[in-house]
Specification:
Mean pLDDT: 79
Helix content: 25-40%
Strand order of the largest sheet: 5-6-7-8-9
Number of strands: 9
Shape: globular
Order of helices and strands: EEHEEHHEEEEEH
Structural class: alpha+beta
Distance between the termini: 48 Å
């Protein structure tokens, strides 16, 4: 549907502001492996991790054959937006992203001496940090809107 003013068609449908920002930042790139998508100001690994997150929507109940719950698409979008809204750069290592048996999503960074896991669930977020050098660990609820403070503190 569109409005026509002086021969120019203007769309009347409103787009989601998140999608508008994401499409504005999207930059197509080519390399020797083919075409990919980069997001300006985001780490090189963002697109790969975002694609992996969205692939979780293909998982059905019992995807692990041990009774695991499916991953809700709203939770996948929440995790993607959470990652996208974080002020990350290429100095932040790529997280390992895994679906959880309870229908949640984990972002994990294993950096030798340090291990950080962020668990995203429908009812909230929690992180676990372990320092192998001094064998200290921290586990607690995470209420921030992005990864910035967690990354700065632990990685």
């Amino acid at each position: 549907m569109s409005n026509q003013t002086m021969g120019i068609n203007y769309p009347t449908a409103r787009k989601d502001p998140y999608e508008l920002i994401k499409s504005f930042l999207e930059v197509k790139i080519s390399d020797h492996e083919g075409e990919g998508t980069l997001y300006a100001g985001m780490p090189n690994w963002f697109s790969e991790v975002d694609d992996r997150l969205h692939a979780f929507s293909q998982l059905n109940d019992n995807w692990d054959s041990y009774g695991a719950s499916y991953i809700d698409e709203d939770l996948i979008e929440q995790a993607s937006e959470f990652l996208f809204s974080s002020n990350l750069d290429n100095n932040v290592p790529k997280p390992f992203v895994v679906p959880r048996k309870d229908g949640g999503i984990n972002f994990e960074w294993d950096l030798g001496e340090k291990f950080l896991s962020l668990e995203i669930r429908k009812d909230g977020m929690e992180y676990f940090f372990f320092n192998r050098k001094d064998e200290k660990s921290i586990e607690k609820e995470y209420k921030e809107q992005n990864l910035d403070s967690l990354i700065k503190e632990f990685l």
